[in-house]
Automatic annotation (TrEMBL):
Location relative to the cell: Cytoplasm
Family assignment from sequence similarity: Belongs to the PanB family.
Protein name: 3-methyl-2-oxobutanoate hydroxymethyltransferase
Pathway annotation from the record: Cofactor biosynthesis; (R)-pantothenate biosynthesis; (R)-pantoate from 3-methyl-2-oxobutanoate: step 1/2
Residues that bind 3-methyl-2-oxobutanoate: 47-48, 86, 115
Pfam families reported in the protein's UniProt record: Pantoate_transf
Name of the gene encoding the protein in the UniProt record: panB
Native organism: Campylobacter ureolyticus ACS-301-V-Sch3b
Gene Ontology, cellular component aspect: cytoplasm
Assembly mode: Homodecamer; pentamer of dimers.
Cofactor(s) the record lists: Mg(2+)
EC numbers for this chain: 2.1.2.11
Length: 268
């Protein structure tokens, strides 16, 4: 498996559009970040950690303090992949407070970019953050932070009018300086049109395979989180089962006295 030898930059990511598919995976700590580092193009510290790491029912309780803590940990474990950190619910309100929060992320962590759920926020907020030297990844389509307001998680762009609005939103976000787009839970043909309509990389999740790349939550992709499985998730590993099997073996060896043996003991 090829691995990046040099730090992945936004210029590299943009250069791959239409040439080679890009990969992104989530991580919340230094351990997994180090495992993924360099093999994937991008690592996302997603507010999905509230569900997968903290056992919440949604992402809305993520705080700036918590996201910064996990971003610091990921940055300690990953030195090569491009690092993107989610701006949590409530951190993007108006230009002044949004810029303050984005700057705080940049000052406190080594993240390369912040990700903002951008369906409904004013374009001026994105522009202000970008103009202050902070790279923005704009997230459109199904945006989990709006799930409570929208009564759940619903596939986007089923209707022609909504599809047109989403495509235009993508174009507008590129025009105000967004570096990358994440398109989630969107009809595949619309995500393809979005990808064709902008010059910046478009990363899909539940948006078909015609985008410039894909992102998945690692605990979904590797079978550690099994409370539910979205349609777009493919499990590449039965992680929970494998870990539990190893745990059961450990327990049995301790109880039987098989572990620790002579090899794993200090003998005078």
């Amino acid at each position: 498996m090829d691995k990046h030898e040099k730090k992945v930059t936004i210029n590299y990511l943009k250069s791959q559009k239409g040439k080679s598919k890009l990969t992104m995976i989530t991580a919340y700590d230094a351990l997994f970040a180090n495992i993924f580092d360099g093999f994937v193009d991008m690592i996302l510290i997603g507010d999905s950690l509230e569900m997968n790491f903290n056992g919440r029912d949604d992402t809305l309780k993520a705080t700036m303090q918590n996201m910064i803590y996990h971003t610091k940990a990921v940055c300690r474990g990953a030195k090569t992949s491009y690092i993107i950190a989610d701006m949590p619910f409530g951190s993007i309100k108006d230009e002044k407070s949004s810029l303050k929060n984005a700057i705080l992320f940049y000052k406190k962590t080594k993240a390369d970019a912040v990700k903002i759920e951008a369906n409904t926020i004013p374009l001026s907020i994105i522009k202000t953050i970008v103009n202050n030297g902070i790279a923005v990844v704009a997230h459109i389509g199904l945006t989990p932070q709006n799930s409570r307001d929208e009564g759940g998680y619903h596939v986007k762009a089923k209707e022609e009018n909504e599809a047109k609005m989403l495509i235009q939103k993508a174009i507008d976000l590129e025009n105000v300086g967004a570096s990358i787009l994440v398109v989630e839970g969107t009809i595949a043909s619309v995500a393809e049109k979005i990808t064709q309509s902008v010059k910046i990389p478009v990363i899909g999740i539940g948006a078909g395979n015609k985008t410039d790349g894909q992102v998945l939550v690692f605990s979904d992709a590797f079978g550690f989180y099994d409370k539910f499985k979205p349609k777009f998730v493919k499990r590449f590993l039965n992680g929970k089962e494998l870990v539990q099997n190893a745990l059961f073996e450990y327990i049995n060896e301790v109880k039987s006295g098989k572990f620790p043996d002579q090899e794993h003991s200090y003998n005078g």
